[in-house]
Every structure is written in structure tokens, then in C-alpha cells.
Design brief:
The protein is an all-alpha fold. It has two domains: 53 residues, Orthogonal Bundle (Arc Repressor Mutant, subunit A), CATH 1.10.10.60; 149 residues, no CATH class. Helices cover 48% and strands 2% of the residues. It binds a DNA duplex through helix 3 and helix 6. Can form complexes with MYC2, MYC3 or MYC4.
Length: 221
DNA sequence: AACAATGTCAACCGCATATGC
DNA sequence: AGCATATGCGGTTGACATTGT
């Protein structure tokens, strides 16, 4: 049995106080990132290492770009999601100053709905067929039509891929990407070269290759 | 003004993967 | 090679804010 990442009895939970933030910032300023397990004690924080890491990465890092997402960023997230699926850290890696948590939250609260309103299934970026469209008076139509990404997508081929939860495999990626390959959307410009640098596109392609390779290894050991 | 419904986002949890021994 | 531990990731939760009735 795995040991818990920290002694839960002695750790604070919930929102961070200003003092805690300052302690964490000061410690990392002096000692740098890393060694999250020992950091809380060294920094005098009653938090677990994971919590410190999350706080730093998602909120305290000096290079974070806070505030609203620009249209370009929105566009890029949608395109990258079509390519990569729910791999938020990879997507965030292409958006300077944005974190995976931020991108994920923004996707779930804004972009998913935006795509649904455009008649696009946010899970696979296909056009929602007529019988899948939300009913006008259905109050939580979004949730009822589109299942969360981790669950079985409500698509015609949903029974082909079992709702297997395994990291490193490529269900989301291959599903979303393959669906795009044979089902181009007229209003979803997937030419990443327009708003994304060539190196970024190369990196995305490279990641996809790696993912493909990895899933092949898993499927065919 | 009061309450309910809904939206947003920071933080937590559990698992997978990476790394070191 | 196999185990133990640390780190990273994605899904989910819950508190707070906002909007509607």
C-alpha cells in the first residue's frame, strides 16, 4: 500500500492564506522549485508537497498570465484539443503563461458551451447530428448531451472504445484526431500554421507521434 | 430583500508514470 | 528486474460569486 504523500493530520487544507503564499514564494525564490515532498517542512508550511506544488504552478509562479483568455488563445485551445484531447498540460504548454488547471477550467466553463452552441460536439469536435441537438427547453442540455471527457462519449462509435481509464494511452487523442481526419469541419480551421508557430506545430505532431507509439506498445507488447 | 439556480475557479484526490536504489 | 518513492496529470469537488425569480 502506498504511503500518503503527507501526514494528513498535520496539514492545512483549503484556501491558502497570504502568509502561506509568502512563505512559499520566499522559499522557492531562494531554493528554487523541486523536492516538493520536503519543501513544506523546510519552508515552514503545514501543507502537503502536492498542495504546495499546485499552488505555485497554478497561482504563484511569476510568469503566469492572469486574466481573460484572448480570442487567439481560445482558438488555439480548441484546435489543440481537437488534436490532443483532454491533455491539458500539453495544451497549456503551448499557451505561455497559462496553466493546465486554468485551461481545463476555461474549457469546461466556456469553450465546451461555445462549441455546443456552434453545433459541435466538444468531445470529438464533430458536428452534432440533428437528433443529438439539445432541446430548447432542456435546462441542463449541455450536461445531458455531452458526457464528461473521461466518460463514454455520446457518439455513434462510443461502443467501439471501452471507457477505459488509463494514462498514457491515446483514446481521446486518436478518437478526436481520427474523427477530424475523416470529418473536416467547415468552421473549424485546423491549419495551426496560421496562428501557431511552425515549431509549435512540430511539437504537437511530435507529441502525437509519441502518443501513437506509446499506445501501440500498450496494444501490442 | 430573500432565496434558488447556475457559473466559476481554486484546490483536492487518486492514479499513472518517472526515477532512484 | 523489481520495488519504493516522488512527481505530474486529469477528473472532481466545494466554496464563493453572480444571475434570475
Amino acid at each position: 500500500m502506498r504511503k500518503p504523500c503527507c501526514d494528513k493530520q498535520d496539514t492545512n487544507k483549503g484556501a491558502w492564506s497570504k502568509q502561506e503564499d509568502e512563505k512559499l514564494i520566499n522559499y522557492i525564490r531562494i531554493h528554487g522549485e523541486g523536492c516538493w515532498r520536503t519543501l513544506p517542512q523546510a519552508a515552514g508550511l503545514l501543507r502537503c508537497g502536492k498542495s504546495c506544488r499546485l499552488r505555485w504552478i497554478n497561482y504563484l509562479r511569476p510568469d503566469l498570465k492572469r486574466g481573460n483568455f484572448t480570442e487567439d488563445e481560445e482558438d488555439l485551445i480548441i484546435k489543440l484539443h481537437a488534436l490532443l484531447g483532454n491533455r491539458w498540460s500539453l495544451i497549456a504548454g503551448r499557451l505561455p503563461g497559462r496553466t493546465d488547471n486554468e485551461v481545463k477550467n476555461y474549457w469546461n466553463s466556456h469553450l465546451r458551451r461555445k462549441l455546443i452552441n456552434m453545433g459541435i460536439d466538444p468531445n470529438n469536435h464533430r458536428l452534432i447530428t440533428h437528433n443529438h441537438l439539445p432541446r430548447p427547453h432542456d435546462s441542463n442540455s449541455g450536461a445531458s448531451i455531452i458526457s464528461p471527457a473521461s466518460k463514454v462519449p455520446v457518439t455513434d462509435n462510443s461502443n467501439i472504445h471501452p471507457p477505459e481509464k488509463s494514462r498514457g494511452d491515446n483514446d481521446q487523442v486518436s478518437d478526436a484526431a481520427s474523427s477530424l481526419e475523416d470529418h473536416q469541419l467547415p468552421d473549424l480551421n485546423l491549419d495551426l500554421t496560421i496562428s501557431v508557430s511552425a515549431s509549435t506545430v512540430d511539437k504537437v505532431k511530435d507529441d502525437r507521434r509519441k502518443s501513437q507509439k506509446q499506445s501501440n506498445i500498450i496494444e501490442d507488447p
